[in-house]
């Protein structure tokens, strides 16, 4: 029983982590508080659905089409919408407020387009929906795949960001954008890249989620908020933090559902989140407060 | 002379790093004392603990015979301790005058309204910023920001003033002015503990110096003696100063 | 090597630099002296592309125009800046800061040797390689900033008040280090308040006042110039000779 | 001084006009006014604390919901004024607890903490209702017309603005700005940060609680998903930011046009509402970068006194 | 009177959290009906003339305050002739006082409530068409009792419910209904909306020894649970779930695995009018209707249309006719009792690719329950 609970908790948490990692890139590095983040996830889910239902392309193959698309989308959004705001706020320091307001608008646009194109219905399809045995626990193959991908992508990103100069440069932009040019880092390009990468991660999360979950065009906000909670709990801009916090929340959810009361899963999630912040005001892996 | 501030066995630990280790010293009323030491020896940390920015890991800080260790900064400020910061901290969205009024309005015998404004203007005159009250604090030059920060500290009517490298970054002419300003403070009966790397200023101002190295005190006494001390020369001044 | 002619610069309506012409020769060390607010930092910022110039400014490094060069391209041209306030990456470790110093293309290769040199200049950094730069003392952070700039293998190193906040012994060491750096063939453009020690290592110096160049001479001449004595040395000799 | 008196006079006249208005317009008009009064009050109350301190709170709906739920639970058992009092007290107590908990948090950590808190409260209320009382929805059959509710909200809104005005010219207002700029400096200047933050947060939260309590009878039926709807927090924040959260009249000037725009769009373009709204929103961010109030001031200033800088020279 | 059209307005959740539900049950049927009426030349009046429908549509953005104001607007600004109700129990209650005050009949469909009799007393022009929790759970208890008495299932039941108005209403009615019928509730818990992982609850239920698994769930939960039950090979003899089972997408997504799954609602597969309705719905909307709420929504519109035809546009008269008249609809012959629709399909089951009504079993067109549910067919 406990093994089952732990494994399904980790698997659930894997998706949370994957989704949160994209947001932590966008917010931690590009400094864009992207309220339309969840919409990117849902768009990707719809695309996966279209590929499956219209063209019969399975979602894993679909990633090959969707991920570059998402990257381009993120790249475009940053270039068209965010860059002027970033430029403008160099003096006024209002990027946070501006990005909240602008992406709030973007959220409406994306959601509205999806409502027009796909309607407001619940959408789902079935893919790899069979059980796989791990340590005696049965897990949906689709969920397991999502988990594996989350871990692989997460680990690869983590290593890239912490072990390479390229990654360190990205983090440098996160911590001191005004100093980055001193060492030859093109802040604008890096931020744009990180934003697009964030969108790509969101899309991969969306494809994973679509394989086992029903979704609607208005559901993006739920994912945005969940991702924000994970990001903040892990420590802003910290990939490892997002990974650990995501897995932790997944575990808490299943353990509480199994051993306490399923009615308290979300309450427990938020309680843990709040407790972590009370204990460490900058998240699990955030810089310690001085 | 009774001690206005006395630190006893003061200690501060950051994780595994002991930044300040069992430091004792005192500053008498009306004295100007220098706190010296190599970079990273713990001077700012001592200032931070006296002013309440950090709580000490161990030890005591007595101010006018009251134990102020670990009190929140505003309580310590109300006891009569004011400070400047090593890296200037201005309130960027406020005007220069409001920067000063903020301190006038929240000190122990606070005043508010026109009275506070008039007092702020007076302080600005004292530090050489006469008539600059309406400018935005963040638009001032570095030296002017430093001046303003001093005015803000003075606005609290402190008995003890903690200056963390307030004179650094001034050119020799400006240094002169700065030194004179501090001298005038002493004449008004203020007690000053200053951290400084400019020996000229230390010699000109301080009757006594306390030197730290790697968190511990290595010398304490009349300035000239201390600056001639072999340990101090080796750890801090370098042979060129001997 | 570095040629600046007719540099003007405005912040809003405030004219911070007015028709400034400055040059730094190959392997030369040049110091800029001036009161607070004279525009020294602005000059360095203009060279490194961090602020936009106006008017008929001409600015080039060995003929390569620096005008409108985006700031992140400047290090690759061979100019490194240690800015006012250090500008280090506080949330990264000392090691990572130094590693980023070698981010420009021109700095790749020979990295290890330069790291060696830097640890030699600042042994403290070698002890604290894994420390978060933010938690270092003021002086230690200054060392990180200079080390990082050196890592980019610059031909011209610009330092904006490097001695600010450093213990006397470190200042002495720092200038000794600068002397050695200069001997490796790097040109230095130095802004300093510590006039005597900077003139001691400089070849030439400029005097700035309210955004204009008001004087220029060899370092030794400036050292004895009574006007300089009056304006910048407070009429006294400092504790260093 | 005289400017203050004129200001008060104009405000009072406007208030009287707003009190009389529902008697001459139809039910829909009253509904609009009611909605406006609700959001103006929420946004102004939000900005009391979050404006100067820059602690962006998403806990608005937690207090709003507490207010609404208190009315739902107690409306049958206690006289209405007492219900409001209980709601206000409850809001206050929760605000103090939340305030104490959040003292160490800053920036986006504070933002998301307050969001999490609102969700936690909603989850706990739900769980309690499901498991302890065995029902989820609650009915409110209070005999209030839309006009009654509007008048109450209007009164509360006026009081909120008055409080904001008073704070703005008291030293607490300055303290809040100092805290917003640099808490370390604030503390060393003798400001008791914790107390001031706590006090303001509590005042602001209590007002939000009352908005929820007053508005609840309008919906007959409440359940957690209705009264703890996070959209309310977001809209409040957006309105205040859009208007200019650091100024007394800013939130009002953000809330009114935004609310009317929402209304107009959802009435005229129900199926493309989202897209148009979103586009307009983005345009606004680009065109009105520093809030509606600043925008109005800049432009009216230009009318009154063309190029003031030139003439000053 | 020289009017040229009939104004009909509605405010419904086109965006926000409720858009998913409204988007399947409510909006398509409003659109379909209006389209059909206008195609036919308009609403027929008692004198045989026809007046086209002019529609006014608002989005309530899933917010109570918005739906209330939108209805005020429809009544006082747009002065529409009739207002169609919003989606959701809470929203129907929120607007009920307004419908009452402005004198509009309220044909509340997507509101499951046991309090309907009280509401009718309070607001005499309100109509409650989807029954209450007690109705559905009593019917379910009957199906289960029969199966137990035949020895098909044991008397243990595992039950979960979504912590939301709908789930709680049903589960509070289910507890007494099932225990009175002699069943033992070995697992009984609720879960918050937006839960996506049901494996802990399915595992608990599987381990509880119950032959019957009941979930009063919302569509995303229903879909997820069905998929996860297959993964976990959790195959109770009776599988009953809430909203979503009656969606055509449910049958499409689960294929053979939908067989035997039970839920609220259902249809008579042999009813020609109903089959015709489904075909028209699919043709016009592009998707088949759900087989619980959609059918009733369309029924309510047919009743309104017919009432207008009989008595004209006077709202008092239409309300009276709705209360007392008998109507021929896609649900069969329909007559309200005390302003409530009672001849509903309380329980349905997927049989041969169709979600058919099985309870009340004595109603014409009822299918026989097929229990136990067939085991899952392995995925492709
Ligand atoms: N918040 C902190 N966390 C961890 N270590 C710290 C922190 N603050 C200071 N330190 C460490 O404590 C030591 C003492 O620092 P402090 O700032 O007191 O030095 P200082 O004597 O003021 O030096 P300087 O003259 O360079 O300003 C340094 O090694 C520094 O790295
Ligand atoms: N970002 C800015 N916006 C407006 N004015 C500025 C800005 N930066 C500098 N100034 C003004 O330009 C002038 C020159 O400033 P600069 O920093 O170059 O002087 P400096 O010689 O380096 O002085 P210091 O010795 O104080 O560092 C000053 O009057 C300063 O106030
Ligand atoms: Mg220091
Ligand atoms: Mg400078």
TrEMBL record, chain A:
Q: How does it sit in the membrane?
A: Multi-pass membrane protein
The question of whether Cell membrane is a record keyword is answered with yes
Pfam families reported for this sequence = BPD_transp_2
Q: Name one GO molecular function term.
A: transmembrane transporter activity
Q: Which residue ranges does UniProt annotate as crossing the membrane?
A: 6-25, 32-51, 57-78, 99-120, 140-161, 193-215, 227-252, 259-279
Predominant place of localization: membrane
One of the GO BP terms on file: amino acid transport
Q: Name one GO cellular component term.
A: plasma membrane
Keyword set for this entry?
A: Amino-acid transport, Cell membrane, Membrane, Transmembrane, Transmembrane helix, Transport
Q: Where in the cell is it found?
A: Cell membrane
Q: Which family does it belong to?
A: Belongs to the binding-protein-dependent transport system permease family. LivHM subfamily.
Q: Under which name does UniProt file this protein? A: Branched-chain amino acid ABC transporter permease
TrEMBL record, chain B:
Q: Which Gene3D superfamilies match?
A: P-loop containing nucleotide triphosphate hydrolases
Per UniProt, the keywords (alphabetical) are: ATP-binding, Nucleotide-binding, Transport
Record's keyword annotation contains ATP-binding: yes
**One GO MF term:** ATP binding
Keyword Calcium assigned = no
Domain of life, per UniProt, equals Bacteria
Which Pfam families does the record match to this protein? ABC_tran (PF00005), BCA_ABC_TP_C (PF12399)
Matches recorded under SMART domains: AAA (SM00382)
Name all ABC transporter domain ranges.
Answer: 5-239
Q: Which GO terms describe its cellular component?
A: plasma membrane
Record-given protein name: ATP-binding cassette domain-containing protein
Q: Which organism is it from?
A: Devosia litorisediminis
From TrEMBL, chain C:
Q: Which GO terms describe its molecular function?
A: ATP binding; ATP hydrolysis activity; branched-chain amino acid transmembrane transporter activity
The record's CDD domains line, in alphabetical order, gives: ABC_TM1139_LivF_branched
Q: Supply the alphabetized keyword list.
A: Amino-acid transport, ATP-binding, Nucleotide-binding, Transport
| GO process terms (BP) | L-amino acid transport
Where the record annotates domain ABC transporter, the positions are 2-235
Please report a single Pfam family linked to this protein: ABC_tran
Q: What's the family?
A: Belongs to the ABC transporter superfamily.
PANTHER family on file: HIGH-AFFINITY BRANCHED-CHAIN AMINO ACID TRANSPORT ATP-BINDING PROTEIN LIVF (PTHR43820:SF4)
Name used for this protein in its record: ABC transporter ATP-binding protein
Where does this protein come from, organism-wise?
Answer: Devosia litorisediminis
Automatic annotation (TrEMBL), chain D:
Subcellular location(s) of the protein: Cell membrane
Membrane topology classification: Multi-pass membrane protein
Checking InterPro entries in the record gives: ABC_transp_permease, LivM-like
Protein name in the entry: Branched-chain amino acid ABC transporter permease
Matching CDD domains: TM_PBP1_LivM_like
So where does this one cross the membrane? Answer: 5-25, 31-49, 56-74, 80-101, 108-129, 149-167, 198-216, 222-242, 249-267, 273-296
GO MF annotation, one = branched-chain amino acid transmembrane transporter activity
Arranged from A to Z, the UniProt key words for this protein are: Cell membrane, Membrane, Transmembrane, Transmembrane helix
- Protein source organism: Devosia litorisediminis
A single GO cellular-component term from the record reads: plasma membrane
